[in-house]
Design brief:
alpha+beta, Jelly Rolls, six-stranded mixed beta sheet, 23% helix, 30% strand
Length: 894
């Protein structure tokens, strides 16, 4: 305790004594996490943020200190790494000190010199290394003797003694399947669905927990409960996960590493001396539901002194893969508790709960009843005409036994011992309604049930506030869908499939990155891509997969994630690591398409999925994505100094563009192919249109949209491109009218009909493709930031080091405020109409600058600092672009 207090005091003193100017160094992150445990990288990344309200605030230099002694760091000594003073404005760097040791806590601090050459130091942060290689594991992989058909979940336990005073303890836990870890009767951590889903036979993730506070002197007990997850898929669906090559009974490996005050270390491991049995979890499926029989739960099974004499022994299991790495990402949690808005008693044994919104997650019920009472909790998005829960829109691909394993229906059997509570451990669902049916009459109230919104707990990074309520509701609904489909990897929907559809993820990548700090999830998912890629470069269109998805349509319009997502991470974070990690994969992927497409055109893909009515040309769309991937590869090659690749793929990209335009662009009319909204917008958004033709093509698109009453006539590719193509080519007013349209077909049509998430089909009465929580039409959420707020990253200065500001002052929108927390800090772009003038408010974080493009038809009348009202003379270059320094401004335009 004395050491901890000394460390805190020194950290405070270093922060206070050096912090007398206005500059603050904040938001220290290692591998994009705050004080992470289990860092495996020998060269972890450090990031930080400068906070300084002064106009023009910037970082001129920085220094990083790293030590195993927090006091040394606070006093200015880095005996593991002292970067020295680096004359740089970078806020991202990699560790480059002495070799890091496993199982070691390191402390670090950043000092910066601001624009006045004043030095300011951060508080002390930390990171702790993990296994740093499979050779450091001591535990064995163990399981019970049951096979893949056993329904009951396996429970494991072990007791051990600690006689010396404990300094710290860490649990390193990896499982094939899912796990919950317990110490002395308490669950360890607040994560859900650990570890994250991977291709289990190629990569497994271990999780690190600080369990110091849960251990006690004397007798201790460890409990492990395993779930099937995607590893042992027992509920048959059309995606063939029940035939996955890795499928087996769940297993785990555990190292509980205890460091004592005397410096000695003891590791309690998973071994054949553990005991196993079954308990209350009699069935669990990540896809359908969980069944819990409270009569079979062995009370105290994970506590010291429990009688396990009737439990069985365990057996060794082969390691699922030779690649066991740390799960360094924002975990899944029960992020938000949701109280039902309404409860309807249908009869003495049936109750219907309405959460008032669609979520991904679980419900929790508290109830009293007689022993053996069977309670079924059916989770649905819709109600039938008689007001009952209806799953017919989401169980269409389920091929299991709907009697013994009903879709999205938990089964809870009561023990009859007072008030009982149930919430599934190894499942999540997509739902708004919960219908509770009981085998015997039970008196339930509204507060007997609650919902939990579960998702990867990524920090919020953006916000929208507009005078038009429809914008606010649509932005909120888009985010609900995004989070509902961010479950350790991006999914299409949280109920019918839960699949990592590649296309859905890249359609919504801007929406995700403007709104959330999701880099840790995307880096994990792109590692899944690398695991799944065939030697010839081909990818499946759902990732991870048990084998499904390597069909004839898994083409470039979906699997371009391999290029588009790493490039966008580079744009939004200024971090090229993911792009570098995927470089060879992108290259193999492009080479494969090139080998099949000697004329520069390809029709490999799925096409414009779920269009309103007009069908668009698949070859045009797929060839555009082929161009995008190739251009990203060429740009990445230039970034990494691969000149030969840069030359080769730049030439190929131009060949593809030329081929597309020669075949599909009518230069006389400015029309692509048949001139559908999708066919006109995609070439514009992805910069395929020749420069001298852009205006004509954009004008034709705007005319097409106006002729359609400012309604959408697109599928997924057009929904991605349409608004951007319009607003970035002189037709922002038209784009806005489409975005806030509230008649069918439109995004707004969903909202005015009560949607709280995005739907899968424009038609509310469509006979198929009718999930009510889908992300594939989610690009509109990113458009608000670009099309209205005008906040763009700059390819030449990525990570918002230089912010591109291109707001559009929409005549029929009174005001809007758009904000995004970039790696440098919060960017705010807000405008309002004031008579005939526009008041444009801008905030740029310290250490960044911006290029402000004045919208056509406007000119700047005056500019001032927001806080002081002091007049500012903005500098403008020969192209009419204004340069803004860090600070807050109010600019009047007419």
């Amino acid at each position: 305790m004395r050491i901890i207090l000394t460390t805190l005091l020194l950290s405070f003193l270093s922060f206070y004594l050096l912090g007398q100017n206005s500059t603050r160094v904040e938001n220290l992150r290692c591998e994009y996490l705050e004080n992470p445990l289990g860092v495996d990288s020998p060269n972890p990344r450090f990031t930080w943020m400068l906070s300084d309200p002064e106009s023009g605030a910037s970082q001129q230099a920085y220094q990083i200190l790293v030590s195993t002694d927090s006091a040394k760091v606070a006093q200015g000594t880095g005996d593991v790494w002292d970067s020295g003073k680096r004359n740089s404005d970078a806020i991202l760097t990699q560790f480059a000190g002495k070799d890091l040791k496993p199982f070691t806590k390191y402390f670090w601090l950043v000092s910066v010199w601001n624009q006045k050459n004043e030095k300011e130091s951060s508080a002390v942060a930390s990171f702790e290394t993990g296994m740093m290689g499979k050779h450091n594991w001591k535990g064995s992989w163990i399981s019970d003797y049951k096979d893949i058909n056993e329904k009951a979940a396996p429970y494991f336990r072990k007791e051990f003694e600690t006689e010396k005073k404990i300094k710290s303890a860490r649990a390193y836990m990896v499982a094939a399947g899912l796990f919950e870890l317990y110490l002395n009767g308490e669950k360890v951590g607040n994560h859900r669905l650990d570890p994250m889903y991977t291709r289990f036979d190629r990569r497994n993730l271990y999780v690190t927990f600080d369990v110091t506070a849960q251990l006690k002197s004397g007798r201790n007990a460890i409990g492990v409960l395993l779930g099937n997850g995607w590893y042992n898929h027992q509920s048959m669906g059309v995606w063939d996960f029940h035939n996955a090559p890795w499928r087996n009974r769940p297993a785990f490996c555990l190292d509980l590493r205890i460091t004592y005050e005397d410096g000695t270390v003891e590791t309690i491991v998973s071994e054949r001396d553990w005991k196993t049995s079954t308990g209350g979890v009699v069935f669990n499926s990540i896809y359908t539901a969980e069944h819990f029989d409270a009569r079979k739960e062995k009370q105290g099974w994970n506590t010291p002194g429990f009688d396990d004499s009737k439990w069985q022994g365990v057996k060794y299991r082969p390691t699922p893969s030779q690649n066991i790495v740390s799960q360094l990402l924002h975990p899944i949690r029960n992020v938000e508790e949701i109280v039902p808005q309404q409860m309807t008693k249908i009869n003495d044994t049936t109750y219907l709960y309405d959460l008032g919104r669609n979520i991904a997650g679980v419900s929790q019920i508290s109830v009293r009843g007689k022993e053996g009472t069977i309670i079924k909790l059916k989770h649905t998005e819709r109600l039938s005409v008689d007001g009952r829960a209806d799953a017919s829109n989401i169980d269409v691909y389920y091929r299991g036994d709907k009697v013994t394993d009903p879709f999205q229906t938990d089964i809870f059997i009561l023990s009859g011992k007072g008030e009982e509570q149930f919430m599934p451990k190894f499942n999540y669902k997509g739902f708004r309604y919960v219908e509770v049916t009981c085998s015997h009459p039970i008196d339930l109230k509204k507060d007997n049930l609650k919902g939990y919104f579960m998702h990867s707990d990524v920090p919020q990074a953006g916000s929208i506030e507009a005078s038009n309520p429809l914008i606010n509701k649509l932005w909120w609904a888009t985010n609900n869908s995004y989070l509902s489909n961010f479950i350790g990897y991006p999914t299409d929907c949280p109920q019918r499939e839960k699949n990592g559809w590649t296309g859905d993820a890249h359609f919504a990548i801007e929406t995700g990155l403007y709104n959330y700090d999701g880099i840790t999830i995307y880096e994990k998912w792109l590692a899944d891509h690398r695991d799944e890629q065939q030697p010839n470069g081909v990818l499946p269109d759902i990732i991870p997969t048990g084998g499904w998805g390597y069909g004839t349509d898994n083409g470039v319009d979906w699997t371009s994630t391999i290029a588009i997502i790493p490039w966008n991470i580079y744009m939004y974070y200024g971090d090229s690591k993911l792009l570098a990690d995927c470089y060879d994969n992108i290259k193999r992927y492009v080479n494969y398409i090139d080998s099949r497409s000697p004329d520069g055109l390809t029709s490999w893909g799925r096409g414009d999925w779920v269009p309103v009515k007009s069908q668009s040309t698949k070859e045009l769309m797929s060839s555009i994505y082929y161009y995008v991937d190739t251009q990203i590869l060429a740009d990445a090659a230039k970034l990494f100094g691969k000149q030969d690749d840069h030359t080769r793929y730049s030439t190929l990209a131009q060949k593809i563009k030329q081929s597309v335009n020669e075949k599909y662009l009518n230069e006389e009319t400015g029309t692509y192919a048949n001139g559908t909204q999708t066919e006109q917008s995609m070439p514009l958004m992805w910069n395929v249109v020749p420069a001298d033709m852009r205006k004509l093509v954009a004008d034709n698109l705007a005319k097409k949209v106006e002729e359609n009453g400012f309604h959408l006539d697109v599928g997924v590719h057009g929904a991605k491109a349409l608004l951007f193509a319009l607003s970035e080519n002189g037709h922002a007013e038209t784009a806005y009218k489409v975005a806030v349209q509230d008649k069918y077909p439109s995004w707004g049509w969903w909202i005015v009909n009560g949607a709280t998430t995005l739907l899968e089909n424009w038609d509310l009465e469509a006979p198929r493709d009718i999930s009510d929580n889908h992300m594939m039409f989610g690009a509109v959420g990113g458009w608000f930031y670009r099309g209205l707020g005008g906040i763009y990253p700059d390819e030449n200065h990525p990570g918002f080091k230089n912010v591109i500001l291109k707001p559009n002052f929409i005549s029929s929108l009174e005001n809007i405020k758009v904000s995004h927390k970039s790696p440098y800090g919060e960017i705010i772009s807000a405008w309002q109409h004031k008579g005939k003038a526009i008041l444009y408010s801008v905030t740029l974080p310290a250490n960044s600058v911006a290029d402000f493009y004045v919208p056509s038809g406007y000119s700047i009348q005056k500019a001032s600092e927001a806080a002081s009202g002091k007049k500012v003379n903005l500098t403008v270059n020969e192209n009419g672009i204004y340069k803004l320094q860090a600070g807050s401004y109010v600019i009047e335009l007419r």
